[in-house]
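Exam revision sheet. Question 4 asks you to relate a sequence to its structure. Input first:
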Amino acid sequence: MYAWQSRGLLDRGSHFSPQVLPTLNGDSLLLSAKDKPLLIYFFAPWCPVCGLSISNVIGLDNSEFDIQLVALDYANLEEIKVFVDDHQIDLPVMLGHESLKRVFSVQGYPTYYILDKDNNVLMSDMGYSSTLGLKLRQGLASGF
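Answer key, structure tokens:
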């Protein structure tokens, strides 16, 4: 990972207190790791890099990791619905807010975090990542 690409993101070992977030379909979910590490993918529906990388995230094998998608910096729910439909996303999409954006120091999109089962940061990164790059991150994080 490039240091300039992840500068300003939470450091390894930083702790996150779980939060309940509304979802695009009107439910609510707990943004939190459970019994295995969690990959959080922060995206903005207007972000072209997010549109290119979201299929890489969705295509990951989630037997070792949970995956949670969080939309930020959206103008309205319809904008997110179009993004979800265009990219055939079948995972729940959580609706983030400015304070969550600040908690995770999200400065650009997409931003990725991998948290351990105790909600401590294992890895963070920002920008495009291929499926292989994400699998490597999964492998590195599971080695911690």
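Marking note for examiners. The mean pLDDT is 87.
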